[in-house]
Amino acid sequence: MKRIKTMIAEDERLAREELAYLLEQEPDIELLPHAANGRELLELVPLRQPDVVFLDVHMPELEGLQAARMLKASPISPLIVFTTAYDEYAVEAFGLNAIDYLLKPYSHMRLKETLQRIRSRIQEGKAFPKQEAQDAIQAASYPSTEAAARSMRGKLLFDDGDKHVLVDPETILYAVREERVIRVWTAEGQRITSKSTLQELEEKLAGYSFFRPHRSYLVNVNWIAELSPWQNGAYNIVLKDEQRSMIPLSREAARDLFRLLREA
Questions:
Q1: Domain segments of the chain: what residues?
Q2: pTM: predicted TM-score of the whole model, two decimal places
Q3: pLDDT per residue over 136-191, tens digit each?
Q4: CA angle 80, 82, 83 (to 5 degrees)
Q5: Of 51, 64, 228, 258, which one is least surrounded by beta carbons within 10 A?
């Protein structure tokens, strides 16, 4: 049985020891030397190459969120589980593709859910190199058609007036229903008008991180920068684009979004 190489990045000794104790109960977990701050973590990861890092949001010298951004851009990018006593950073953690977000004090049952998610992700990762090899073989046999297919893979086709527009779903900021059309805004500054319904678009984007914050809107969760309280339990969602676009989040949807971010 392959053990999961696991590193804890935590500056508080008691919190670190508590988490280490819980992880030691799992036979497939191999605990690596810990990091006491973000800079230590960045030094240890290339040397130890962990599969997963339990990363405290608040640490001296280099905060956990900053360290996670740097790891995400590095050649060795382990799975990240953020740990904190507060839930206010869930939006940003979710945007960094963290596999989970654990609140202190730790719940053993909640940790087990996290570990199962980690195991599943690692199992999925094992099959990926084989698929890459198959893609490479096909590309060698049919270089031009395979390259074209790969460039279009996963993109959505929109009918925008007399044009047909291909869009990478991950670049979509949000979509809004206006009268009998929907308007889609992308990170590149495109505004696409489509006669599809918002429900149809939501179904096409089911495999991506999209959420209905309001009956007339669909938002890409990975582009959320912050949630700004408005009134009566509702919020405004501020996006990460240059215009800092703002869209409404209803009170009912706010509860669902916070739950989604905590469980993601």
A1: 4-124, 154-263
A2: 0.51
A3: 334 333 444 444 444 445 678 887 777 778 888 999 999 999 888 999 999 888 89
A4: 145
A5: 228
